[in-house]
Amino acid sequence: MKTTSYKELLKYNHYIFVLVLNMLSGFGFVIFQVVLYWLAYKMSDSTLQAAIVVQSSAVPYLLFGLIGGVYADSWNKKKIIIWNQIGTGIITLSIFVSFMLHIESIWYIAIASFLIVTFRCFYSPAIRSLVSITLPETLWPKGNSIFQLILQLSRSLAPVIGGILLATFSMESIFFFICIFSLFPLVFVISLKVEWEKNSNKIRVLKELQGMFTLLQTKRIMFLSIVSFGVVLLFFTGMERLGLPIISDQQWQMGAKGFSLILTLFAAGNAIGAILLGKMEIKSNYPQFIMIGCILWGFGLMGVGLSPTILIAALIALFTGVAESFIDLPMVLMIQKYTPEEQLGKVFSALSTIAFIGEAGASFLAAFMIDWTGINYSFVIMAISILLICSLSLFFMFSIRNERVGE
To answer: Which of 352, 339, 332, 335 is nearest to 63 (CA)?
Structure first.
């Protein structure tokens, strides 16, 4: 079988455009989130008010997560991306003007955040779908590994840049900077050429979603992988967001610096793992990769949480990031391979929505475990729970596969 090289990706200009525009768009979006979280606590009168503002960036996924996928499959993906960038640019420009006129309001910023994330509900499945559209199938593993690499670099670097901006510049300057990052990617969107057959029929959202669920019923192993991942996030995310700050402060005496270092190494490990997986060119057994990756991911976080020193934690964090890539890339490849092109956006939206539901309850579960068992035991319970979830999922997957063989 002919092997492919990363250099071959350079032959596909439209894939490069997708890569660059998503990097710039994602960079600006993450910086906006960092600034939002800071303003929520700086401008709010109470913790409850701050929590409501922070949740304004999460609610759209519950309301529009699945719907965004429907329209991403039915509308012109290029136009969806253009409207996302223009809409985000106009909203951040309005926040810039409000700070210039000294009429800023935390509630307006919350509404702005809600609108920007709503745009992302349509943008995310559209941009994800373009990777498989702009590349031949033989290059999907490498194309997705680079896409994941750039995504992780943006997620790891943007918070650092956001912190520097908050410490150095005024709010007016920061939102003007975010506005430029929203509008500049339009240069690459305009150059993008994507074949699209106009659908003159009225879009029936419920019918489209019913078609997606019908597809997932026929792809039971893929559906089980997606749902299992959402349940894993229910146990993992809360311990990452609530448990690690406690460990960094009480066990390593590093405070916020230790927490940010671990998060950065998670992203660095994920980037390294994405490159390694791209070289492996996996073309099958995606669910097994995902479940084993989840198990390693959970025990990696447990290792970080139980580490007596920041040095040991840092080494394990790098491994944990690599383990996460064994989830992310195979998940994307599995969806791309087993989902018809006209259903891609909806299935990616289903993945995002299920993941968000898992993350939404994670903090409450982690808080309960920490209060009930203590911080160290909570990491152990989290890892064992993920092991049981993934083991049970693998058992059901093998049972489904055996049924098919029997038939």
So the answer is: 352
Q: Which residues contact 338 (CB under 8 A, 6 or more apart)?
A: 219, 222
Q: Which of 357, 344, 300 is nearest to 323 (CA)?
A: 300
Query: How many residues appear in the chain?
Result: 407
Sequence letter at residue 187: V
- What is the chain's pLDDT, residue by residue, as a tens digit (407 residues)? 456 677 888 888 888 888 888 888 888 888 887 787 677 757 777 655 665 776 677 678 778 877 877 777 777 888 889 999 999 999 999 999 999 998 888 888 889 989 998 999 888 888 888 887 888 878 877 787 788 777 767 766 776 677 678 778 888 898 999 999 889 888 888 777 765 544 545 666 677 777 777 877 888 889 999 999 999 998 998 788 778 878 888 899 887 677 767 877 887 888 788 778 777 766 678 899 899 999 999 999 999 999 999 999 999 999 999 998 888 888 888 888 888 877 777 787 788 778 877 776 776 788 788 888 988 999 999 999 999 999 999 999 988 877 654 44
User: Residues 281, 142: contact at Cβ < 8 Å?
Assistant: yes
Q: Is the pTM of this model over 0.85?
A: no
SS3 string, the chain, reads CCCCCHHHHHHCHHHHHHHHHHHHHHHHHHHHHHHHHHHHHHHCCCHHHHHHHHHCCCHHHHHHHHHHHHHHHHCCHHHHHHHHHHHHHHHHHHHHHHHHCCCCCHHHHHHHHHHHHHHHHHHHHHHHHHHHHHCCHHHHHHHHHHHHHHHHHHHHHHHHHHHHHHHHCCHHHHHHHHHHHHHCCHHHHHCCCCCCCCCCCCCCHHHHHHHHHHHHHHCHHHHHHHHHHHHHHHHHHHHHHHHHHHHHHHCCCCHHHHHHHHHHHHHHHHHHHHHHHHHHCCCCCHHHHHHHHHHHHHHHHHHHHHCCCHHHHHHHHHHHHHHHHHHHHHHHHHHHHHCCHHHHHHHHHHHHHHHHHHHHHHHHHHHHHHHHHCHHHHHHHHHHHHHHHHHHHHHHHHHHHHHHHHC
Q: How far is CA 9 from the centre of its chain?
A: 23
Q: Chain centroid to CA 172: how far? A: 28
